[in-house]
Inverse folding.
DNA sequence: CTGAAAGCGCTTACAG
DNA sequence: CTGAAAGCGCTTACAG
């Protein structure tokens, strides 16, 4: 039983309590808490002691109401692959935490007008200060137009080439896909198949472009039979690979536009008794967790997903605080060699 | 150019604007928005028309400040397996959205006192109304004590047997593990190994108990060599399985306490050239996404992770609104048979 | 069924 | 360097 163990114990301390305890005006407490200048060091210390003693934590809602800022950032994503999404979440979450903003997740599913309405309803209801758009939402002209009309700042992760003043972070999808294809060519492969990513994703087209460019620069004829449409999900990779491996002259290497589809490709190979990598090399893209838990582990492109998301959040916060849109950020990828690729051993 | 296309366009409408437009007091607007009784239907309609016309969305911070509620729920989790975490997120998110609460995610990493401090700092800074504890945090006596002292309501997902009045959701881990073990016994296996989950998780102990109980009821002697410690992560399953498969008399079946470790077990079998399921049956637990993307697909226990989390959020919201702690909820599991288990074909 | 007043706990704008 | 006043946009408590 302490001296102040009375009924007031349950009520949270407010700025008034702190001001009274420190013998200053609430404005001074506010200055100390927000690191504003013009506070004498001795006064500052007195305030800090009172804050500590009263276990004071400023009310976010009072602060928001008075400052006309919610300190809330929204992260909107569609969810093609859970492996990818969780990294996107982590990156944005980390940056928001550092900046004392809170991150609100909003998973969407629809398309077109309905999707735009969904995003705008989320923004309206939560009164978020800004939004982070993960792909493929980062490419939606319709959403971008609606956000502009609404005057809501946003940052984009891996957007398409649409010109817009809002900040974004991206990587060189085309260059990375080209690099991977050239790596397979370097292993001696000539019959290299490609599984395209989800239609409508800018990255899908870029990766296909890189694949084609590598073939061309090595004078390997493009074979439409070796290119299949997927959607970034495991099942689509499984299905596409089943078809590819059933071709009369089957490919000796399959490059899937992401790791989930590459994992599906491995399963098709297992089903059909095709040895990886002895009879078939398989490559993915992302370096997601799944690339290390399949057999054999996948050769892939390490896409800096966490960093892309962190950077997008960083740019958004900077633009909110400065008012001017910062320059876009381009991050580097890396080819990771694992056991799923190799030179041909038993070509049939 | 509409008639009201002047500078006021950027300012958001407030409750005062709506009241003025509808010719009522703000209290009446508040009644309509919160579905309170005692509003004439005609008045109600007038208000709704004004809300629509002004595109009015109530300010969450003003509402929070006045009502002394943040309408914020925290979800705190440690992250042993990404596959599990994303389902936990989804379940809680879905329920909060329905209840017009916002969900704040907080991933923690530490342990002991530091961990408790981390959780409490999160609660203090955000002023959340309640907290959802995912395992193994749902078992921490220290955190529970701190939350009690703080007077913060919380719900637990799959907690241990600690008696506490706070609501929780769980499943029968012991029964499920027993069922899986008996299924393996039914296939003719006698040398059944078990890989234990992360130490300190209540579920880990319960699943081990179920495994032992099944052996006992079928009069199969318990062999300590066949039981290995894991931590729910892929690598620990890989390592444990490598050891098990290197035993002079190796097991014919391995039951891992979760899917990630079972996936690691499959990789060890691949590495060592042990055919699954012909020479070795492998079973997991969770029915996470990974159970369908490995080769062969895993026989596992479908743990209703999403529903457990949804239920915990549901119980928390109910207890916040009613003030009385609702009854705990127990959810059902299901054994999912896939290709990773079978009768022995080529015992060596 | 409806409303006027007070107040939630901060920041902004201003004064000294 | 410090502070008094006003106000952000709602809900609570009360009155009629």
């Amino acid at each position: 039983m302490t001296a102040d163990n009375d009924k007031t114990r349950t009520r949270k301390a407010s700025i008034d309590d702190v001001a009274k305890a420190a013998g200053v005006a609430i404005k001074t407490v506010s200055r100390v808490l927000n690191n504003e200048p013009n506070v004498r060091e001795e006064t500052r210390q007195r305030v800090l002691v009172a804050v500590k003693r009263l276990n004071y934590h400023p009310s976010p809602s009072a602060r928001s109401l008075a400052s006309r800022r919610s300190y809330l950032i929204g992260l909107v994503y569609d969810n093609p692959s859970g492996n990818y999404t969780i990294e996107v979440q982590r990156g944005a979450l980390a940056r928001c935490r550092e900046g004392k903003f809170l991150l609100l997740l909003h998973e969407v599913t629809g398309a077109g007008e309905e999707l735009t309405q969904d995003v705008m309803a989320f923004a309206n209801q939560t009164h978020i200060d800004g939004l982070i758009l993960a792909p493929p939402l980062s490419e939606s002209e319709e959403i971008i137009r609606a956000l502009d009309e609404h005057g809501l700042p946003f940052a984009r992760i891996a957007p398409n080439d649409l010109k817009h003043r809002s900040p974004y972070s991206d990587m060189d999808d085309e260059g990375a896909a080209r690099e991977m294809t050239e790596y397979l060519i370097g292993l001696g492969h000539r019959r290299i198949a490609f599984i395209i990513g989800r239609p409508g994703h800018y990255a899908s087209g870029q990766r296909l472009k890189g694949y084609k460019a590598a073939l061309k620069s090595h004078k390997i004829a493009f074979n439409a039979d070796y290119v299949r449409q997927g959607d970034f999900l495991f099942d689509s990779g499984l299905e596409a690979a089943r078809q590819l491996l059933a071709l009369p002259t089957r490919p000796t290497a399959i490059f899937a536009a992401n790791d989930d589809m590459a994992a599906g490709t491995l399963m098709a190979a297992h089903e059909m008794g095709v040895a990886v990598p002895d009879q078939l090399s398989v490559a993915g893209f992302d370096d997601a967790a799944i690339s290390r838990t399949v057999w054999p582990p996948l050769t892939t492109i390490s896409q800096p997903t966490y960093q892309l998301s962190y950077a997008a959040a960083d740019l958004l916060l900077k633009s909110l605080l400065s008012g001017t849109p910062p320059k876009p950020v381009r991050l580097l990828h890396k080819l990771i060699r694992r056991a799923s690729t190799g030179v041909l051993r038993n070509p049939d």
